[in-house]
User: Fold Diphthine synthase from Halorubrum rubrum.
Amino acid sequence: MLTFIGLGLYDERSITVEGREAVRSADRVFAEFYTSRLVGADVADLEAAHGVDVEVRDREGVERDPEPILAAAETGDAAFLTAGDTMISTTHTDLRLRAEARGIETRVVHGVTAQSAASSLTGLQNYRFGKAVTLPFPYAHGGDGVPDSVRETIEANRERGLHTVVYLDIKVGTGPTGPDPDHEEYMTADRAAGLLADGWRDALAVVVARAGSPDAVVAADRLSALAGREFGEPLHLLVVPGDLHHVEAEALVGLAGAPESVLEE
Assistant:
């Protein structure tokens, strides 16, 4: 059996009860934290909370060399952990398909996602979101500023009146000069706002920082204004709203501190 378990958003307590039981009953527990991580807990915290040893795999160890995971699931119960939900923002469908092809039973235990939290915290209605994008560090895509694909997605959503979740790049084990096992870098919302402001200086945007934590921050303003503010420790994301329902507009003022003058334009 191979069980994919979402850990939720913040620390070792964010997992569901079902997920906690699945972790504790597994013979071996694997995890990856190169696509996202828990901001309030490290591997030692997870091990102590659940009474297990966690074997952390890097990207290559999941995507190119999954044999240890599959072999463990073939002969016993293996758990595979990621922050958030294992099959939404962080998708491991390929690993699941490999397991199924070998006759290994699989299941998914879901966790809270950053996108659902962003909707909940901002007051923006979840069915009014369009396609999400990830904003990479400029060095990661070999260009300057914002990739055309990101701009085109945001514009397409805005033309349809839809909101855009902009996930912010995470680099673990790879830096500006190539592979670096000690490199860990998280794009901040102010940096992302500065990059996007080159195309939409006066556009309204919403920062969501540390969703799921006790000190989560939600702040709405023009991109140019958000670029000049600091939002503390990661993880951060941005939302670029489309057309606003009046309740959504009220929520951005009341919950995110949006200037009423921006919403009136």
The chain has a mean pLDDT of 92. The chain has eleven helices and twelve strands. The domain at 114-263 is CATH 3.30.950.10 (Methyltransferase, Cobalt-precorrin-4 Transmethylase; Domain 2).
